[in-house]
Design goal:
Blueprint (H helix, E strand, L loop, with lengths): L1 H56 L5 H11 L3 E6 L4 E4 L18 E5 L2 E8 L9 E8 L1 H51 L14 H52 L2 H31 L5 E5 H18 L3 E5 L5 E5 L2 H16 L5 E9 L2 E8 L6 H6 L14 H11 L3 E6 L5 E7 L10
Parallel strand pairs: 7-9
Antiparallel strand pairs: 1-2, 1-5, 3-4, 4-5, 6-8, 9-10, 10-12, 11-12
Length: 447
């Protein structure tokens, strides 16, 4: 997050600097070129005025020679041509042009020749029209280019310094903003992994982040209290309900030993109801544990676990004349809490073996679907109607004789691990349960 904030701020600063520095440099450079051209044009026009006396009046004064010497000392090159294109005067080192100007120009002309700017100015007689000659003034553009280069270096240096300061500010700002969020994210992750005592300690950053930290800590304290209370309630239920049920069943067994046939039958019915109540109590405890599970997820080989659980249930399936098979065409890894996959498979197999008639078949298919793992349990039993499938994951949704908690436990365990459970009809008859689980790179939702 800090990196994204810093990059966003720096990108904005770079865009602002580019929007300001580049147009400013271009404007100043263009102005310098205009000033350079205007200055040379003015010098050429003044020299044409001085040359008019020589060309028009034929006076061999010193003014033109002095002006040419001054310009030559500045590394300018001058050439004065009469109306016939004859060179009348020029700088000693080299004239401005290597060829005569004929006919003379009528207006001021400017062009570049290599690294020099050449201006041709007409020599106009006093009170007359037309041109009696041409003055050519050539001036090097190297000083101008150096000045413009220095300008760009200066602008680039200022922009780089500004960018450096902006980078320091952006990094500091991003860390100031991101540090509390990172702290909160770490605390939330630890809390979700089962460390219920975890609290976020945020003392820096914006006030909103500190307020969020206080809110998180309040929420964490409340949830910790609720979970601890719920765990205590489960322990109390386990002790206060299951123990009396076991004692009651033992007493009924003792009574049944000396009872007559009719009384023994009634006692047997009572024992069945007690056994059903015990199974229901165990199921409720299993659902509660699934809903309040906070263990850390680990990487699990789904196919290996499926084969192991099928091996455990195979004697039960063989006793009921049910075929139990596992199909795993390739590797499939999932992230789940410890023993969660075993509980899912045990509940699914217990349910299906209870309803399948002799000669039935159960196939467990394990496959990888993209980054996730999929566990599919198909049977060819009586199946479920549409309404039954919609209610199957609710507690106590089974008919007489069952607790209706097996599929509820499966659904809770799949959901708590970031997966899902779905029911559908098996082609040809039966029920298909599809468990979708987060893969090696999948998310893990803690509750």
């Amino acid at each position: 997050m800090a990196r994204r904030i810093a990059v966003a701020v720096l990108t904005l600063i770079i865009a602002l600097l580019a929007a300001v520095a580049i147009p400013l440099g271009l404007l100043i450079a263009a102005q310098d070129r205009r000033d350079f051209r205007s200055g040379q044009s003015g010098a050429a026009s003044i020299l044409a005025t001085v040359a008019e006396e020589r060309l028009d009046d034929g006076v061999h004064g010193t003014a033109l020679a002095r002006s040419i010497r001054q310009l030559g000392g500045q590394d300018d090159r001058v050439a004065v041509y009469n109306s016939s294109g004859q060179l009348i005067a020029a700088t000693s080192r080299r004239p401005a042009l290597g060829q005569p100007v004929h006919p003379p120009v009528a207006t001021l002309q400017t062009f570049t020749s290599g690294d020099r700017l050449v201006v041709l100015a007409p020599v106009v007689p006093d009170g007359g029209t037309g041109s009696t000659g041409t003055v050519a003034l050539s001036r090097s553009t190297v000083p101008l280019d150096h000045k413009i280069f220095t300008l760009w270096v200066l602008i680039s240096g200022v922009a780089a310094a500004g960018l450096g300061v902006a980078a320091i500010v952006a990094i500091g700002l991003s860390r100031w903003l991101a540090r509390p969020i990172t702290t909160l994210a770490g605390a939330a992750r630890q809390f979700g992994e089962g460390a219920l005592h975890t609290r976020a300690h945020v003392s820096t950053g914006p006030p909103e982040a500190r307020n969020l930290s206080d809110t998180f800590n309040t929420m964490a304290t409340r949830i910790e209290s609720l979970v601890i209370g719920h765990q205590a309630l489960m322990a109390d239920v386990s002790h206060q309900v299951r123990t009396p049920l076991a004692a009651l069943r033992l007493r009924l067994d003792l009574l049944a030993q000396d009872a007559d046939e009719s009384t023994a039958a009634e006692l047997a019915g009572a024992q069945e109801e007690i056994a059903r109540l015990a199974r229901m109590t165990n199921g409720l405890l299993a659902v509660a544990r699934a809903e309040n599970n906070t263990v850390r997820a680990t990487l699990v080989d789904v196919a290996a676990v499926a084969r192991e659980r099928c091996g455990t249930w195979h004697p039960v399936a063989a006793e009921r004349d049910v075929t139990l098979e596992v199909a795993a065409p390739g590797p499939a890894m999932a992230r789940l809490g410890e023993d969660h996959l075993e509980q899912i498979l045990d509940n699914l197999l217990a349910n299906v073996l209870d309803v399948l008639p002799a000669g039935g078949a159960v196939t467990i298919t394990v496959q990888a679907v993209g980054p996730r793992a999929q566990l599919i349990v198909r049977d060819n039993g009586p199946g479920m109607g549409g309404q039954q499938q919609r209610l199957a994951f609710r507690r106590f949704s089974a008919g007489p004789g069952g607790t209706g908690l097996g599929l509820a436990i499966v659904d809770r365990l799949a959901t708590v691990n970031g997966g899902s459970a779905a029911l559908s009809d098996t082609p040809g008859g039966g029920l298909t349960v599809t468990i979708d689980l987060p893969g090696d790179s999948g998310g893990f939702n803690q509750f």
